[in-house]
Design brief:
heterodimer; A: alpha/beta; Rossmann fold; six-stranded parallel beta sheet; two-stranded antiparallel sheet; 13 helices; globular; disordered N terminus; B: alpha/beta; OB fold (Dihydrolipoamide Acetyltransferase, E2P); seven-stranded mixed beta sheet; 28% helix
């Protein structure tokens, strides 16, 4: 039986780094955020965030409808309730150099990047005009032009892949940061910790974003996780953590800035936990019997990110009519995307055999 | 009682080595733990320790001797109370000790490779030099890395240790730690990082210490690397090479002895290459690194140290997806790949003595499979045996026999016969391992069967 390291450590050998310093490093970002929690937007910025969040919500509601009509098939995971996360975080990124990757609940992240809703909706209906030419579907959408790398269906895989994107940024010294989103469920996958280890070891420029919506499919966080404070999960790898209210777009934006400053300075990864909530089931086929209607209703009434932003806009002096105008614009864009998705042709049969390989052998 | 000191086996696959240096001389007293000599294998220089106390009586193999077989008596140690000077050398034996006979696996004990037909892809008149497969693979990576800064090598022990099997020897020195990267033991994680880096525009070479460990990472190879181009409608490529030794080594047990060729060859979106000789190893690895598609490149530990001819070309790149006729024949076709090719060539030599003229095809690429070459050979010989070092069920051999049945039925004068390993996890005991693995006599027997001889 080998002697445990801790036996030898007590007083006999000095620790390499004083314990207090380590604590400071791991909490310093959280402290920066606590000191000044919310981003101060201009009226135009907040209007823009509001419009983006509303677009995601209306788009997802429409997708839910089209699913009900049988126009969208397979798995379809809606982002309703979590809008402030993608909008707040991505607003802080530099789209010319930073990269984003996520799991299968990916429509919102694409819309937050300004990708054309028509291309996304047409992918959902499996049409040739879809962003993946109808061959990916809801879970597999990509836009290399926007440095949006998907759209991955295997829970947790995007975390290692995201570390690979960060590796590429560092290798090329292009100044970019990778942002890898994953859920509280994915946070229990082994490869997440393999990636934490290497990202910290090699000081990769990556922000790990845990979107904690409370449920891994039907399993509540407390039933599936020994440590339910996900922001602490990087501690063993010396990755500083931040806990953020994912229902407040301005807090999300501010937290993103704190994290980005740290990562861009070459300090290695940051782990952010964004506490959020999904109003719909895990996917369209989930009746969500594992939680009460009251629980959902309570979040909708008290913590809704869009209502929150609306209240703030009104307080800033934006009038109701301007907000109505936005609402109209968003509804029109969503209706247009649905029409387009419904009326575009399906892929040609010959498309079955294209894109299997890039080259011919 | 004098103690015979024998040439030690310093790795599972070592059959012989160089006695590089004696650190003791005759008459020296030694105790357990003293370093007696330095022995060079093809992978490393190892120290040979004494496990007994005594006096060095006679040194039988002088330093600098190459090709000393495992088990050869290299010195004699006089025990307590014995007169070291009186200790005599043992009567020379023709062969090494029994232990040494049992050590190499059946597949490993293949003698010097049978010369193969020249590859028509290599221009006529090209100068040939000799190279081990190990050096050929290393040179392929080094040449490509010199050409393209996006290429890097990542894996366990690839950098400072110089490669667990020394395939990446010297790369760290030439290319530095930015491009030759040691990882922690974390296959799933680094396969994912490599795949993500490829999506992000780099050209990774991911080394698995063996493909057995790639089972931990197979999700990224298949779900992330192979499917992305298709799922993205051709928008997002994943140009990556996953490489490392595959198949049975020697006496390493069931978990370290499996051929994954059929597993990967099952998946659309992947290229799967399994070369046999040094020329193909180099030419196809260079092609794999240049490919825009994800490639699984299956090497074989038992072939790393074998020496073959290698064309002296500035840029030796071979086409992916093309089989190679290693030996022309008219009576029967033996289809194989990787280590099986050596066995097939031996079988063909032996069969020639019996008046059977066998054609030997090396598939080289398992996906996409070169059906045309197989079917053209079948049309000529009308008989096929498939020789594969791997499990028989759902194997490449199964696929070849299906192809012959579907597309070559009218050319068949006998049923296709598969010669594979036995359908059991690979056992450890030397005799059982030998029984489980494909060998030349089994190929010869199968050929006689399809030739009705």
């Amino acid at each position: 039986m080998p002697k445990a390291k801790s036996d030898a450590g007590s007083g006999a050998e000095p620790a390499a780094v004083p314990a207090q310093d380590e604590d400071f490093a791991l909490h310093s970002l959280q402290e920066s955020l606590e000191a000044d929690k919310r981003y101060t937007p201009s009226k135009e910025e907040l209007l823009h965030f509001y419009e983006q969040m509303l677009l995601i919500r209306r788009f997802e509601e429409k997708a839910g409808q089209l699913y009900g009509l049988g126009l969208i098939g397979g798995f379809c995971h809606l982002y309703i309730g979590q809008e402030a996360v993608a909008v707040g975080l991505q607003s802080a990124l530099d789209s010319n150099r930073d990269s984003v990757i996520t799991g299968y609940r990916d429509h919102g992240h694409m819309l937050a990047y300004g990708i054309d809703p028509k291309l996304i909706m047409a992918e959902l209906t499996g049409r040739a005009a879809g962003i993946s030419r109808g061959k990916g579907g809801s879970m597999h959408m990509f836009s290399v032009d926007h440095k949006f790398y998907g759209g991955h269906g295997i829970v947790g895989a995007q975390v290692s892949l995201g570390a690979g994107l960060a590796f590429a940024h560092k290798y090329r010294e292009d100044g970019g940061v990778a942002m890898a989103y994953f859920g509280d469920g994915a946070a229990n996958q082994g490869q997440v910790y393999e990636s934490f280890n290497m990202a910290a070891l090699w000081k990769l420029p990556i922000i790990f974003v845990i979107e904690n919506n409370g449920y891994a499919m039907g399993t509540a966080v407390k039933r599936g996780s020994a440590e339910t404070h996900f922001y602490r999960r990087g501690t063993a790898f010396r990755i500083p953590g931040m806990q953020v209210d994912g229902m407040d777009v301005l807090e999300v934006r501010k937290a993103a800035e704190v994290a980005l400053e740290y990562v861009r300075a070459g300090n290695g990864p940051v782990l952010m936990e964004l506490n959020t909530y999904r109003y719909r089931g895990h996917s369209m086929s989930d009746p969500a019997k594992y939680r009460s209607r009251e629980e959902v209703q309570d979040v909708r009434e008290k913590r809704d990110p869009i209502d929150h932003a609306k209240t703030e806009l009104l307080a800033m002096g934006v009038d109701e009519a301007a907000l109505k105008e936005i609402d109209k614009r968003v509804r029109a864009a969503v209706a247009e995307s649905a029409d387009f998705a419904e009326n575009s042709p399906e892929p040609e049969a010959a498309e079955l055999y294209t894109d299997v390989l890039v080259e011919r052998y | 009682m004098a103690i015979e000191l024998k040439m030690p086996a310093l790795s599972p696959t070592m059959e012989e080595g160089k006695l590089a240096r004696w650190l003791v001389k005759e008459g020296d007293e030694v105790t357990s733990g003293d370093i007696l000599a330095e022995i060079e294998t093809d992978k490393a220089t190892m120290e040979f320790e004494s496990i007994d106390e005594g006096t060095i009586g006679k040194i039988l193999v002088p330093e600098g001797t190459e090709g000393v077989k495992v088990g050869t008596v290299i010195a004699v140690l006089a025990g307590e109370g014995e007169d070291a000077s009186a200790v005599s050398a043992p009567a020379p034996k023709a062969e090494a000790a029994p232990a040494a006979e049992a050590a190499p696996a059946a597949a490993a004990s293949a003698p010097a490779p049978v010369a193969a037909k020249k590859d028509p892809e290599i221009p006529f008149g090209t100068n040939m030099k000799t190279s081990t497969v190990r050096e050929a693979l290393r040179d392929a990576m080094a040449e490509e890395m010199r050409r393209d800064d996006r290429i890097f090598v990542m894996g366990e022990e690839v950098a400072e240790y110089q490669g667990a099997y020394k395939v990446t020897q010297g790369l760290l020195e030439e290319f530095g730690p930015r491009r030759v990267i040691d990882t922690p033991i974390t296959e799933y994680g680094f396969a994912g990082i490599g795949t993500g880096a490829a999506m992000g525009g780099l050209r990774p070479i991911i080394e698995f210490m063996t493909f057995n460990f790639a089972m931990q990472a197979i999700d990224h190879i298949i779900n992330s690397a192979a499917k992305t181009n298709y799922m993205s409608g051709g928008q997002m490529r994943c140009p990556i090479v996953f490489r490392g030794p595959n198949g049975a080594a020697s006496r390493v047990g069931a978990q370290h002895s499996q051929n994954y060729g059929p597993w990967y060859a099952n998946v659309p979106g992947l290229i799967v290459i399994a070369p046999y000789d040094a020329s193909d190893a180099k030419g196809l690895l260079k092609a794999a690194i240049r490919s825009e598609d994800p490639v699984v490149f299956l090497e074989n530990e038992l072939i790393y140290g074998r020496t073959f001819e290698l064309p002296e070309l500035d840029d030796h790149v071979l086409p992916i997806g093309k089989a190679r006729i290693m030996r022309e024949g008219k009576d029967v076709t033996i289809v194989s790949y990787s280590i099986g090719v050596g066995l097939a060539l031996e079988a063909a030599e032996q069969l020639a003595g019996e008046g059977i003229d066998a054609e030997v095809i090396d598939l080289r690429t398992l996906r996409p499979l070169d059906k045309e070459t197989v079917l053209a050979s079948l049309a000529k010989t009308n008989r096929i045996v498939v020789a594969e070092e791997g499990f028989p069920v759902c194997s490449i051999a199964s696929e070849i026999s299906a192809i012959c049945m579907e597309d070559g039925f009218d050319d068949l004068d006998a049923p296709v016969v598969r010669v594979c390993n036995e359908d059991v996890p690979l056992p450890y005991a030397a005799n059982l391992e030998k029984l489980a693995l494909i060998d030349t006599p089994r190929i010869v027997e199968a050929v006689r069967k399809v030739c009705y001889r």
